[in-house]
UniProtKB/TrEMBL annotation:
Source organism of this protein record: Astyanax mexicanus (Blind cave fish)
Lineage: Eukaryota, Metazoa, Chordata, Craniata, Vertebrata
Topology in the lipid bilayer: Single-pass type I membrane protein
Protein name as annotated: Contactin associated protein like 3
Pfam hit, one: Laminin_G_2
Residue ranges, compositional bias (Polar residues): 1217-1231
Length: 1238
């Protein structure tokens, strides 16, 4: 026939089915339709027409084909496909990615066929045209293809059951399989219960539309799949046990035991002991097969026990409505002529708000609204702008389940009920009777003409079973436009979709939803983004280090967006960034002697689990682990030929009998390999049966501990792991160069991150193509990066423009993410860009070509420059290894100080390395990774440090340019002095600098705690005092003092770390007559010196000299003399904690390696030096506690000529203060080195 047909495709040979074609007539007055050989066309071309086919029995439908009406301009360009078992309660067929609409024809003659990805099993098929040729009408020819389908059905009424027992019980099998289809009337009930003779049980239970599988063995395990399974449509379930696993499947989604008794539809009172109070299943089961046995057929033959089971599926005829769009509404007539009113309906929705019903009341009594507010039902009556009635009922009604709302008004008493149980009652002094009609879900667009006002949001969801004064509204007549009015409704179907099942929220993110979208709550997951896909933490300590973070505890996510969870790990930021993983047994553990049968097992629980440890180790550049075993008359090996007494187990579970320093399988200790054991007859000191303690180290074989029998065990030291992924780089030197990798698989979620630096203005960073889909990231201009892709909805672009050019040869970071909700792009710390994905579009990214990095498949628009640390979905691509075998691409990319040099603080100098950089803190009074750590000490009377330069004749014997730069600073045309202090003592001397001729500088606190700077530059003039009248500084807080003199100008700055800048003091010094004579210390200075100093001193610096740092960190290589106890303290610390660190404790710092990468320049004193012009014989005394800090310069003038060596000396290139380095300047040489304390 012309309108529709049925064919056989992929089926067993047999006669074709007969079919009935029904045509919908929108109105009884419009019964003319076009039905000729040319095909089907309704009289009215609108979205409320359909073509329906009755296949007379449940049939497997595998494909549909459409064609335009013959010889006409009538064809359908898009349509929906619906199916049903009853002719009511239709269900929409959705393609992959939940695309509902099918693309139709583009002309009247061509045939467009769709093979359904999942076959449909139904009796009725319906096609709803959405769009058609604008120059024609709705018209089509339809062909459906499919197969015969056998259906064995059993119906359960809530008290029914089938009991299938094995007699005798079968033996164990390698595989068990149970499959069935079910259709439920109620949202809860037990479908299947299994037991075996050992008490193991499996229960499949429908609970609020979700299917739960409970496994009870020695413990209880529960799995949940599916949602909205009470929609009165068939759903497929499967339970497969295979090799100790159970695969649990619902529709398209997947778990162990052997059972001898199975109960279907509930649990009978006979046989199994009922240990729960769950209700039995109410619905139908179809084609119930257990290991190929048709249980329904056995029930029909009465070969299994059954109770109240029938073998036909009674269908409930309920007509639902879907309010899917913002303009949806339903208008119904309602003429109330008595004083009692009742209204009831059922609804289901995900939204927390929305209008359910509104009506104007008779006798101008006001307007009645029933609506959802915060997922509760709320009733309000407004009259003359006032709320005269306001009551609520129910809660959490936006859970997607069917809920009922009932309104009853009788004799002035108004009752509002939610789900029959939760009611709210009030009384009114006026009649509550709707006037003529009511509106459900919303109002027409022209509210003024309709008399409908909606003060609230529209309702989006489903409604059914609408009763007005006890009479059920015939919604089929509404659909036929015989009663009422509507717009934007989907009739005779509930189109609710659970967007959280399966959930697109990753890594444990909690999914919530509204009617049109879903949201992921990523709190406390460690991940972010629209779907909790991307980790908010760095993948290594190295990455934290290059954000400027110092040593501390950090969350590390080694695989980024992969499945391994973030782990709190200590990062030791030294020359390299080390990851330190701790365990619970760092103290010595005594082990008891073993008889040989009951071995002593020593376990260590690490702060990271096995998967995390494995991932960290696999990505590490270097790993270390140490475990020591102390033995005293405790034998280990029993000679290489005998069975060992002790062994240790490696991470793969294998036993080993070699020990630290020995080679695998040698059954020796290190001393045996080196032939230096205490007893040469044994290969381990422990085997000598000696009465002394001997330590034995275990080899660095991660991560499992050994099992020793007796002795004392010291737990393994922390695992030190350093990741090299951060520096994995490649340099592309031609536009046609590229690296290729296997296809990138990021169907639903994809995140890509990398760093780049370039001089080029444009280029493609990476590209991967599919048949139609693609993904690409490129630099389109010096200030713009574009992330583009296509998943089937057309090309999509996300752009980020930067205010500064990106082709500046500095490292820049790019991070792109694409998921089912949105796509985002971030460049450095600039504002990112986010583009929302289409609400109902394709979501799978399908790629099939190679991934090109640094170029494209067309070898055009390639990238020139460096790409580093390229990660796709948390996996780092090994650019260096691939670059080694690729022409025109070089592995590695040097030059990092330009990007990271700013991390070196406090005059620290950036030093280039192949993989990264380091900060040289030699010219800084600070130490640490970034020259950020204050070098501090707390002093008490009796502690002192003397720092001195060597005599000039000693300097003549060496040629160190570094030392020469030191002495060139000390012509004393000016000086830079800085220090921090914390004390409660006043008065106190903080700094003293003097010469043989009573010229000196003193920094002190007077009796009021104010800072005094006392300068005497000429011996024949009195000292001048510059006093700060700021607050008392002897208050126990940390203060920073900076003194800068350039010739005759002095600047003093005092700052408290907890307060604002105190003061800047400037003065001009007058020159005087030359000449000097020796004398004693200034009496006031001597008196303060005698008092001593108690407090904290930190980061002391005189020009380029850091005397306190030299005394504390390098006392053996610096010209310092320490008297009394002197230990480093954190009393001068003022740094704030990192926002990325969970804790910035330094309790574990400096376990490995050095904190700073550079020695202070004072350490070069012992090396050879050359005489620098103008500086001869200078001695600095630093006395801490007695003088706080005293730097004494001893010099006198002498008329001499400069040596040639001094003329050629190179001055220090980094002093902040200009010093006189003129080789022709005069200088004075002392005869002897002088050093003394006052």
């Amino acid at each position: 026939g012309g309108g529709g047909g049925w064919g056989m495709e992929g089926c067993v040979a047999g006669a074709p089915f007969h079919h009935i074609v029904r045509f919908h007539i929108s109105s009884l007055m419009k019964c003319s339709i076009y039905l000729r050989a040319g095909g089907w066309s309704p009289l009215d071309s609108n979205k409320y027409q359909w073509l329906e086919i009755d296949l007379e029995q449940r049939t497997e439908i595998t494909a549909v084909a459409t064609q335009g009406r013959y010889g006409s301009s009538d064809w359908v360009t898009s349509y929906l496909l619906m199916f049903s078992d009853t002719g009511h309660n239709w269900r929409q067929y959705r393609q992959e990615d939940s695309i509902g609409a099918f693309s139709g024809n583009t002309n009247a003659d061509s045939v467009v066929t769709y093979k359904l990805q999942q076959p449909v099993f139904a009796q009725f098929l319906r096609v709803l045209p959405l769009d058609w040729n604008p120059n024609g009408r709705v018209g089509l020819r339809l062909e459906a293809y499919g197969c015969q389908y056998k259906s064995d059905v059993a119906s359960f009424d809530g008290t029914s059951y089938l009991l299938f027992s094995f007699d005798p019980p079968p033996g164990p099998s390698a595989k068990d399989l149970l499959t069935a289809n079910f259709k439920s009337v109620h949202h809860s009930g037990i479908l299947i219960h299994m037991e075996d003779q050992h008490g193991h049980a499996l229960t499949m239970e429908l609970l609020k539309g979700k299917l739960f599988l409970h496994l009870r063995k020695d413990f209880h395990t529960t799995a949940s799949l599916g949602s909205l399974l009470d929609d009165q449509h068939w759903h497929h379930i499967s339970i497969e046990r295979l090799r100790g696993h159970v695969n649990f499947t619902v529709d398209k989604n997947t778990q162990l035991l052997f059972f001898h008794k199975i109960s279907f539809g509930g649990v009978s009172a006979v046989g199994a002991q009922r240990d729960h109070s769950k209700r039995n299943f109410h619905g139908c089961l179809e084609n119930l097969l257990y290991n190929g046995v048709n249980v329904v057929e056995l029930a029909k033959e009465k070969k299994v026990s059954a109770g109240n089971v029938s073998f036909t599926c009674a269908e409930a005829v309920e007509v639902p409505l879907t309010f899917a769009s913002p303009d949806s509404f339903l208008q119904l007539p309602w003429a109330v002529s008595r004083d009692s009113v009742s209204l009831s309906l059922q609804f289901r929705t995900w939204n927390r708000g929305g209008l359910l019903m509104t009506s104007e009341l008779q006798h101008q009594a006001g307007t009645l609204w029933i609506y959802l507010s915060d997922a509760r039902i709320r009733l309000q009556i407004h009259k003359a702008g006032r709320i005269v009635v306001d009551i609520t009922a129910g809660s959490a009604l936006n859970d997607g389940q069917w809920h009922s709302v009932e309104l009853s008004v009788r004799r002035g008493r108004l009752i509002l009920a939610a789900d029959k149980a939760d009611t709210s009652t009030t009384t009114t002094s006026f009649p509550v009777m709707p006037a003529n009609h009511i509106f459900l879900g919303g109002c027409p667009g022209t509210e003024g003409d309709s008399g409908c006002r909606n003060l609230f949001s529209v309702f989006q969801g489903c409604m059914r079973l609408i009763h007005l004064d006890g009479s059920l509204v015939d919604l089929i007549k509404v659909q036929q436009m015989l009663i009422g009015n509507f717009s934007g409704l989907q009739m005779d179907l509930c189109g609710i979709v659970d967007r959280c099942s399966p959930s697109h929220c990753e890594h444990g993110g909690k999914c919530t939803q509204s009617w049109s979208t879903f949201h992921c709550n990523c709190s406390n997951t460690g991940y972010g983004g629209a779907t909790c896909h991307s980790s908010v933490y760095e993948a290594s300590c190295e990455a934290y280090k290059h954000r400027g973070n110092t040593s501390g505890l950090y969350y590390i996510d080694v695989d980024g967006s992969g499945p391994i969870k973030p782990q709190l790990i200590y990062c030791n930021m030294s020359d390299k960034a080390w990851m330190v993983i701790q365990h619970n047994n760092t103290e010595l553990t005594k082990l008891r002697a073993s008889s040989g049968t009951n071995q002593h097992l020593a376990y260590f629980n690490y702060s990271a689990d096995t998967k995390q440890l494995g991932a960290i180790i696999s990505r590490a550049e270097h790993c270390e682990q140490e475990l020591s075993y102390h033995c005293k008359k405790s034998r280990l090996l029993n000679t290489p030929d005998g069975a060992p007494f002790t062994w240790w187990v490696g991470r793969s579970g294998e036993a080993h009998t070699y020990w630290g320093g020995a080679v695998p399988d040698s059954q020796q200790c290190a001393c045996g390999l080196q032939e230096d054991c205490v007893d040469p007859e044994h290969f381990c000191n422990c085997d000598g049966d000696l009465d002394d303690w001997y330590p034995t180290l275990y080899p660095p074989y991660l991560p499992y501990p050994p099992y020793p029998p007796k002795g004392i065990l010291n737990g393994p030291s922390e695992h030190l792991l350093s990741s090299d992924d951060f520096w994995n780089a490649a340099y592309f030197n031609k536009e046609t160069s590229y690296l290729h990798f296997p296809t990138f698989h990021g169907e639903l979620s994809a995140d890509i991150s990398f760093l780049f630096k370039t001089r080029s203005s444009s280029g493609v960073f990476l590209e991967n193509l599919g048949i139609k889909d693609f993904i690409r990231i490129e630099l389109s201009s010096p200030t713009e990066v574009i992330f583009s892709f296509d998943v089937g909805n057309g090309p999509f672009e996300v752009r980020v423009e930067t205010p500064e050019p990106l082709n500046d040869e500095r490292w820049h970071r790019v991070k792109a993410e694409r998921n089912v909700k949105e796509a985002s792009l971030h460049v450095d710390n600039y504002p990112g860009a986010v583009q929302k994905a289409p609400a109902d579009g394709h979501i799978h990214l399908q790629l099939n070509s190679q991934l090109f990095v640094g170029g494209t498949a067309s070898r055009q628009k390639g990238f020139l420059g460096c790409i580093r640390s390229l990660k796709l979905n948390g996996k780092t691509l090994d650019l260096e290894e691939r670059a080694k075998i690729t022409p025109e691409v070089r592995p590695g990319c040097p030059g990092h100080c330009r990007s990271y040099g700013g991390l070196c603080q406090n005059r620290g100098r950036c030093v280039e390395k192949y993989n990264g950089f380091a900060c040289d803190c030699g010219a800084s009074p600070y130490s640490g990774t970034f020259c950020h750590k204050e070098v501090s000490a707390y002093f008490r009377p009796g502690t002192s440090v003397a720092y001195t330069f060597k005599e000039p004749y000693e300097l003549n014997r060496n040629s160190s340019s570094q030392s020469s730069s030191i002495y060139s600073d000390l012509t004393l045309k000016g000086e830079n002095v800085s220090l921090s202090f914390r004390t409660g003592q006043a008065p106190a001397l903080l700094l003293y600098v003097s010469s043989y001729y009573r010229e000196y500088l003193a920094v002190l606190l007077n009796r009021n705690g104010h800072l005094d700077v006392k300068y005497k530059l000429q011996s024949n003039r009195d000292a001048e005092v510059f006093r700060s009248n700021a607050r008392n500084l002897a208050n126990g807080q940390l203060h920073q003092v900076s003194i800068r003199r350039v010739s005759e100008s002095l600047s003093v700055q005092v700052r408290c770390t907890l307060h604002t800048l105190y003061e800047d003091m400037k003065a001009v010094f007058l020159t005087g007559a030359e000449g000097a004579e020796s004398g004693e210390m200034d009496p006031e200075i001597a008196r303060l010196n005698a008092l001593g100093f108690t407090g904290c001193l930190s980061v002391v610096q005189f020009n380029s000299i850091a005397p306190l740092k030299a005394a504390l960190l390098y006392p053996d290589t610096s010209p310092v003399i320490v008297t009394g106890p002197l230990t480093e303290s954190n009393c001068g610390s003022s740094s704030s904690s990192s926002p990325y660190a969970a804790e910035t404790t330094h309790s574990l710092s400096d376990h490995f390696g050095t904190v700073g990468t550079g020695q202070p320049v004072v350490n070069a004193i012992s090396s050879d030096s050359a005489l620098i012009g103008g500086v001869i014989a200078v001695v600095i005394f630093v006395i801490l506690a007695a003088l706080a800090v005293m730097a004494r310069f001893l010099y006198r003038r002498k008329e001499t000529c400069q040596t040639p060596e001094s003329k050629g000396a190179k001055p220090d290139d980094s002093p902040e203060t200009p010093f006189n380095t003129d080789p022709t300047s005069q200088s004075i040489i002392t005869d002897t080195q002088k050093e003394y304390f006052i």
